[in-house]
Amino acid sequence: MRIIDLIEKKKNSEALSKEEIAFLVKGFTSGSIPDYQMAAWLMAVCFNGMNEDETAWLTYEMARSGDVLDLSMIKGPTVDKHSTGGVGDKTTLIVAPLAAALGMYVAKMSGRGLSHTGGTIDKLESIRGFETELSRDAFIKQVSSHGLAVVGQSEGLAPADKKMYALRDVTGTVASLPLIASSIMSKKIASGARHIVLDVKVGDGAFMNTLDEARTLAKAMVEIGSKLGRVVCAVLSDMDQPLGRAIGNTLEVRESIDVLRGEGPDDLRDLSVYLTAKLLQLADGCTFEDARKRARDTLASGAALLKFKEMVRTQGGIWKEEEIYPEMPTAPVVRTVTMSTSGYLTNIPARALGMIAMQLGAGREEKASLIDHRVGLVLYKKTGDSVREGDLFAEIHAATEDDADRAAKQLAVWMETSPDALAKRSLILDEIRALG
């Protein structure tokens, strides 16, 4: 078997066999297939695509290229939730402990943020002492004992995907649906959970800007999971504006705890309950309405908050018994921004606000960038809200007065109002389940 023949086949829109894809992935991972030949094959895929079987085989081989977690010793339903990324998206911090409180076992490997999107591991690392790296045995033991562990992605997890993505990033081959779907799902398959809910973000602050794009990606990922023996569904949720009010690591942890305490913003609570209910429906076989009621009741009981505290303390985080929040750093400069006009807010795009938070230091412009866990934004008004002159619009948490000044000027651009109210988009836009 020769790589040049596989390039020619894909250039001519021919399908590759399972054995050919295995040869391709193993050769590229080991280094026997050089970057320039793999780049040629990736470009051919960008132009001519892959069928469902090819995409599933590619996912399977990338997952098998490194560590694959065996969770079979856990005596209960293993679940995972993955988000395609957005602004203010901190649902894992609520869904994971809520699912654990409902009797599911959450073995969660999460990533870091890049550009305008946040990362779960960055948020958790804002908690003093919290350890995001556990050995495989310690990780599985914690999930078995406590029902919940959230850690950073292992370096050994799907190394073929890491190497392939780095090459795609510099060869203009990122924007390919089968390559995107297989990249995401290879890590989910390698993580070991049997039941997976995918939260596919749609809108200005998401990777997928349109509903049609998001549906296509969601369908591809659900079908991959189904072909590889997982029970998967995808929820398409709105990301035209930030989820919740907080953008920034410490701020988002605090807001998540507010929801676990029965407070916090409605959209964040509603989506978190919805996603947890979908996990419960997949794992338990109950109706969605029954699952949602159980999720709401469990959240209201405080059991999910206790699970979150248990996880934080088990992973080394400092959380004093009498304190509402764990120990986290706070920004030295807090600046409020008020409305200069009255009416209805016309547009507060998620991406722009995510970029403002990133420039404050809450996110990374590139993978090697350091972040400041203290900084970010808290929004008090959203698109379509009725406002009056002098109303509190946002709160800036900054490292310096100059940073706060710059952010205030940037926020002023997004404080436009109209005399007429705008229709608000639904939080849940669609749902994709496996065919049959």
Automatic annotation (TrEMBL):
It comes from the Bacteria. The keyword GTP-binding does not apply. Pfam families: Glycos_trans_3N, Glycos_transf_3, PYNP_C. It catalyses: uridine + phosphate = alpha-D-ribose 1-phosphate + uracil; 2'-deoxyuridine + phosphate = 2-deoxy-alpha-D-ribose 1-phosphate + uracil; thymidine + phosphate = 2-deoxy-alpha-D-ribose 1-phosphate + thymine. SMART domains: PYNP_C (SM00941). GO terms for cellular component: cytosol. One of its GO terms (molecular function) is 1,4-alpha-oligoglucan phosphorylase activity. The keyword Glycosyltransferase applies. GO terms for biological process: pyrimidine nucleobase metabolic process; pyrimidine nucleoside metabolic process. Belongs to the thymidine/pyrimidine-nucleoside phosphorylase family. Catalyzes phosphorolysis of the pyrimidine nucleosides uridine, thymidine and 2'-deoxyuridine with the formation of the corresponding pyrimidine base and ribose-1-phosphate. This is Pyrimidine-nucleoside phosphorylase.
